[in-house]
Amino acid sequence: MSLAPAAFAPISDIEYMRRSETVFAAIESAIDRFLEKDVIDIDASRTGGLLELAFPNGSKIVVNTQPPLHEIWLAAQSGGFHFKPAPGGWIDGRDGAEFFARLSACASLQAGRELRFEP
Q: Which strand (E) or helix (H) includes residue 66?
């Protein structure tokens, strides 16, 4: 699914910060749930607009904000992805993938088991 550029929603700096903070909070909440339910122990380390997820096998996923571009970037073993704000979420500008779906796929691959991140 690919979205036309018009489908992306320009937002203010304040709205970008609010929405990107919501994404980070949802990721951290999911990691807490994984630990509570003994699914997997992912070490999350956050510094400002950068969130590093360290998996038991030594692999990492990095999620970081890009305030000048109003994007969220995801770096995983399977590649790097840039997400733009769109109505109802964050969408990859190249292939139209939704952020949490892509994060779930990348994390599942690196963990060797299904992991689900949700907004």
A: strand 60-66
Sorted by where each begins, the domain ranges of the chain are: 10-109
How much is the pTM? 0.91
In this structure, are residues 67 and 48 in contact, taking their beta carbons and an 8 Å threshold? Answer: no
For residues 10 and 106, the model is more confident at 106
Confidence of residue 82 (pLDDT cuts 50, 70, 90): very high
Q: Which letter, b or e, does each residue of 37-46 get, where b requires 16 or more Cβ atoms within 10 Å of its Cβ?
A: eebeebebee
Which CATH number does 10-109 carry? 3.30.920.10
> What whole-number distance in Å separates Cα of residue 106 and Cα of residue 114?
10
3 state DSSP class of 94: coil
**Burial (CB count <10 Å: 0-12, 13-18, 19+), residue 90:** buried
Inform me whether the pLDDT recorded for 4 exceeds 70: no
Q: DSSP assignment of 36-48, as one string?
A: HTTS---EEEEET
Angle between helix axes 13-36 and 99-111 (nearest 10 degrees) is: 30
